[in-house]
């Protein structure tokens, strides 16, 4: 079966990996002209570590751990790596066996009884058996198939920016100002460092593709602040791997419609404040591909099972995302990892990784 995946962030390449593993033929289309490796650290724990292990990526991921001293299996910081390092690992694990189409995106989708006809912004039209939207919080697949974003996206009143720093000077510092915070993080032993800035705000209107405008918005918010902030803003103006987005959650009653299914932030974004976006994306990809395999490609059965497996897990993660954003507004020190022990125990009960094999008889 040919499966088109829109988006080469975390969820897209992970789904491609598992689909390939189960004998499907995935194609990934990514709007950006190269893999987008920006962003700060993403954390893994519990079952997400297990998925990395099953992909034979856990050892390499541990070698890239931004907090090697903190690595306590099952603890709040069992593994954290730069988002770009994770994208690199996933791409490397898939690129030889998966067709990646960079610099293009889906223009239209038309479903019929035995497939989906897809036209692209640039490439020629093609037919696929299934389409998976892994195109992030602002998913176009979602708006094309399920309805306008306003119906599903809930703004948490917080914006986050992340960018690379030219040195590790002052890393470990955390500036907290009313309605704003800046965190300077040592990212790797090789000199890598990142700044992560947050500010509270109602919904802002801006062009999502205009990075210069994003930088201006952040600079205006932090203008006039002292300490290391002026230096940070100067670094930001030069930064190439700049990430800026709203903290928002995606709430949907269904993640599939016919032959189109959503995963990762496109279907159930928990917001950066959850600290779980990448884990959700990895686990969602594993379960979606696995359910398709055990259902022998019967997408109706598989998508229903995927929803059943993921719902409780996503609800818990979204709760963590809302609590993370609330902590910011209460002025609690957001860089201190919250005590998530109880939540971890609940999450561990909610999602279970089955050993998916491609024949229903074998499960
Ligand atoms: C550049 C970048 C930096 C990030 N940095 C952070 C961070 O510092 N902290 C944090 O908590 N979260 C960050 N995130 C979000 C985080 O990666 C996700 O919450 C999480 O990993 C879930 O991954 P995802 O694959 O569902 O979505 P994403 O990682 O957002 O990936 C979605 C992908 O889809 C692509 N895409 C979008 N629209 C289209 C389209 N129409 N056609 C084709 N492709 C499309 C995007 O370019 C992107 O590559 C970042 C996301 C991006 C894209």
TrEMBL record:
It holds the Pfam family FAD_binding_3. Residues 2-65, 92-294 form the FAD-binding domain. GO terms for molecular function: FAD binding. PANTHER family: MONOOXYGENASE, OXIDOREDUCTASE-RELATED. This is 2-polyprenyl-6-methoxyphenol hydroxylase-like FAD-dependent oxidoreductase. It comes from Streptosporangium saharense.
């Amino acid at each position: 079966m040919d499966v088109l995946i829109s988006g080469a962030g975390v969820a897209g390449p992970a789904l491609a990996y598992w689909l390939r593993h189960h004998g499907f033929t995935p194609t990934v289309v990514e709007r950006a002209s190269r893999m987008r490796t920006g962003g700060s650290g993403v954390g893994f724990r519990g079952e997400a570590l297990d998925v990395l292990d099953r992909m034979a990526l856990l050892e390499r991921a541990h070698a890239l751990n931004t907090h090697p001293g903190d690595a306590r299996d099952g603890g709040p910081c069992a593994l954290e790596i730069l988002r770009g390092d994770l994208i690199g690992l996933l791409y490397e694990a898939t690129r030889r066996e998966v067709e990646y189409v960079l610099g293009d995106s889906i223009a239209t989708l038309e479903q019929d009884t035995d497939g989906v006809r897809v036209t692209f912004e640039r490439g020629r039209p093609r037919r696929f058996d299934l389409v998976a939207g892994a195109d992030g919080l602002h998913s176009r697949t979602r708006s094309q198939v399920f309805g306008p974003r306003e119906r599903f996206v809930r703004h948490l009143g917080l914006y986050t920016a992340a960018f690379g720093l030219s040195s590790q000077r002052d890393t470990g510092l955390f500036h907290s100002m009313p309605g704003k915070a800046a965190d300077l993080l040592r990212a790797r032993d090789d000199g890598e460092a990142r700044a992560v800035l947050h500010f509270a705000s109602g919904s802002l209107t801006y062009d999502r593709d205009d990075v210069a405008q994003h930088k201006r918005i952040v600079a205006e918010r932090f203008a006039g602040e002292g300490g290391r902030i002026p230096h940070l803003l100067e670094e930001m103006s030069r930064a190439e791997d700049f990430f800026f987005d709203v903290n928002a959650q995606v709430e949907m009653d269904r993640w599939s419609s016919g032959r189109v299914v959503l995963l990762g932030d496109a279907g159930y974004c928990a917001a950066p404040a959850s600290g779980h976006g990448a884990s959700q994306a990895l686990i969602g990809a594993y379960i979606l591909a696995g359910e398709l395999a055990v259902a022998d490609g019967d997408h109706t059965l598989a998508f229903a099972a995927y929803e059943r497996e993921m719902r409780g897990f996503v609800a818990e993660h979204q709760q963590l995302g809302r609590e993370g954003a609330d902590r910011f507004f209460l002025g609690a020190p957001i860089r201190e990892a919250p005590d998530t022990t109880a939540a971890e125990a609940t999450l561990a009960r909610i999602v279970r990784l089955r050993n998916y094999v491609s024949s229903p008889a074998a499960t």
